[in-house]
């Protein structure tokens, strides 16, 4: 099947970057929500903050995606209503994006290095 806009396929390398940044923002919001609770969950907020940082900068993206999937499984098992992932749709979409990042890799780097100018 042919693409409707074949010229846009040259930018497909940027798609994982957009997914990474979007998931990082969601994990940052989750870390902030865990931190602002009446009884803060320091381990949960630290894990979500570290996963968000790794996704944002693109280092160890596949490991961060795997850790994020494990975190989502724990949140789903706990059924925490104050979590950013408490809704079924948000949880499912986040799991799909993280699975996509796990399978495709980091994509375009946020800060390209001098030895890899792509």
Question: Quick recap of the structure?
Answer:
61% of the residues lie in helices and 0% in strands.
Helix segment tally: 4
Counted beta strands? 0
How far is it from the N-terminal to the C-terminal residue, by CA? 29 Å
Number of domains: 1
Fraction of residues in β-strands: under 5%
String of helices and strands: HHHH
Task: Return the average pLDDT rounded to an integer.
Answer: 85
**What form results from the Cα inertia axes?**
elongated
Helix content: 55-70%
Q: State the major sheet.
A: none
Q: What low-confidence regions span 5 or more consecutive residues with pLDDT below 50?
A: none
Structural classification: mainly alpha
Rg, Cα atoms, Å: 16 Å
